[in-house]
Amino acid sequence: MKTFKSIIDFQNEFSTEEKCREYLETQRWGLSPACPFCGSVNVHRFPNNRIFKCREKLCRSKFSVTVGTVYENTKIPLTKWFLATYILSVHSKGISSLQLANWLGITQKSAWHLNHRIREMFGDNASELLEGIVEVDETYVGGKESNKHKSKKAIKNGAGKKAMVLGAVERDGRVKVKVLDQTDSETLGATVESFVSSDSILVTDESHAYKKVGQKYNHKKINHRDKEYVRREDISVYCNESAFRYNNRKALTL
Ligand SMILES: [Zn+2]
């Protein structure tokens, strides 16, 4: 892939369906288009420039450069696919489908599709941000501090401090969990931001630790009795699972 100085540069290069197709053809075939069904290079290009027909007697297949690719059978123009790919490649933290939809002038559903397919192409599902209503909660290896008797609570930033497990759960069920060595609100905030898209509704408990990062979101605070948004049972299952693995391996990679 070429590198581009700016998004303007990129758009000039891929401003039409034609240009995008040409690029894909060169990437896929170089100078000699080949039938994707039988591999023959004995093919005819129709005057519309887009469709080919295989000349092999036993094949005779019609095809275009998008056959068998992520772009096949999509109503989304290649120009938008390309632009989305560019945008996602420069936003290493990922962006939300809603943002992508606004930028490209497509529906959020289409944007979600693009977002997922392109991430798959990049092979980095891990950097996809959670979106929508996302509940975040933390627990400690060995139990949540606030649930402990005062005498058993860890001394703040001191010895005996437990590792924190931070979990985020999206309404449609995607989950991110991480063990944090530092439990200060900066670390916690940065982790939340690395998990959750900025236009999400962030749901947490009333802990002060979420106050600062909460200002960057539509932040809903719930107390433990309020069940309006709650999937707290699920989240503690994930957190406990991670804590368990952490205890066993002393290191967790997610
Ligand atoms: Zn063929």
List the helices and strands and how they pair.
Elements (H helix, E strand, L loop, with lengths): L6 H7 L3 H13 L13 E3 L6 E3 L7 E2 L14 H13 L6 H8 L3 H15 L10 E8 L23 E7 L4 E6 L4 H11 L5 E4 L6 H4 L3 E4 L10 H18 L5
Parallel strand pairs: 4-7, 7-8
Antiparallel strand pairs: 1-2, 2-3, 4-5, 5-6
Helix pairs in contact: 3-5, 4-5
The structure holds zinc ion.
Can you tell me about this structure?
- By secondary structure, this protein is α/β, with parallel strands linked by helices.
- The protein has helices at residues 7-13, 17-29, 78-90, 97-104, 108-122, 185-195, 211-214, 232-249; strands at residues 43-45, 52-54, 62-63, 133-140, 164-170, 175-180, 201-204, 218-221.
- The protein has 2 domains: 7-127, no CATH class; 133-249, Nucleotidyltransferase, domain 5.
- Helix content is 35%, strand content 15%.
- α4 (97-104) packs across α5.
- The chain is elongated.
- The structure holds zinc ion (ZN).
- Zinc ion (ZN) binds at residues 35, 37-38, 40, 54, 56, 59, 61.
Global morphology = elongated
- The strand order across the widest sheet is 6-5-4-7-8
Count of beta strands: 8
Number of domains: 2
Number of helices: 8
The end-to-end span amounts to 29 Å
Kindly list the characteristics that best describe this protein.
five-stranded mixed sheet; elongated; binds zinc ion; disordered C terminus; 15% strand; three-stranded antiparallel sheet; Nucleotidyltransferase, domain 5; 8 helices; alpha/beta; single chain
